[in-house]
Amino acid sequence: MTEFIGVYGASGFGKEVMPLVRQKFPTLQKEQFVFIDDGQAGGRLNGYSVLTYTDFINNTATHKAVTIAIANSIVREKLVVRLNEDGVQHLAIQADNTMVLDEVEIGEGSLLCPFTCLTSNIKIGKFFHANIYSYVAHDCVIGDYVTFAPGVKCNGNIHIEDHAYIGTGAVIKQGTPDKPLVIGKGAVVGMGAVVTKSVPAGVTVIGNPARILEKK
């Protein structure tokens, strides 16, 4: 069986993810790994070919697998549908120095970058992204297509709903077992925000303490 492995997204984040993918398949040759990006296809990036999605699918390899290195969760979900329709395997990628402790459940297609820490009694949905130096503490529940930028601090007893985006260096205050702090569906927590109370669905919060960014 011949393998063909793609990183979907030839961006800065994609460049960081490719070495993690290579670690997962140490016996494969470099030419068996490619970036997939319709906008940049035809060139090379860090020594790897950049292909259109069609060219990737049309490759003659008997087994194809992809990880999606795109922070936009809506785009990520659309690409998952596309990959499912074409029977492409979703890769779960985890850096070698990721720390995962007891009773941690993670859905398919997760991407855990270096120095990520998931402690205990955590449930995480599908296609979760945790960028470098992020952590999730005890008794958290995280939905599908949630994205953590670098250095997110998600303390204990926090519920984060689908498609939420947590910006670089944000800190989310610990909730309690009877009253978890909730980040609503599709909410955006800005870079460096300090979240001390629940955030409604679909809003953006910024600052310390975090407050809703009003649209002008």
Automatic annotation (TrEMBL):
Site label Increases basicity of active site His, positions: 139
Segments forming domain PglD N-terminal: 6-82
CDD domains, sorted: LbH_AT_putative
Active site positions, chain numbering: 138
Pfam families on file: PglD_N
Alphabetical list of PANTHER family matching this protein: ACETYLTRANSFERASE, UDP-N-ACETYLBACILLOSAMINE N-ACETYLTRANSFERASE
Similarity-based family: Belongs to the transferase hexapeptide repeat family.
Protein name stated in the entry: PglD N-terminal domain-containing protein
Organism of origin: Acinetobacter venetianus (strain ATCC 31012 / DSM 23050 / BCRC 14357 / CCUG 45561 / CIP 110063 / KCTC 2702 / LMG 19082 / RAG-1)
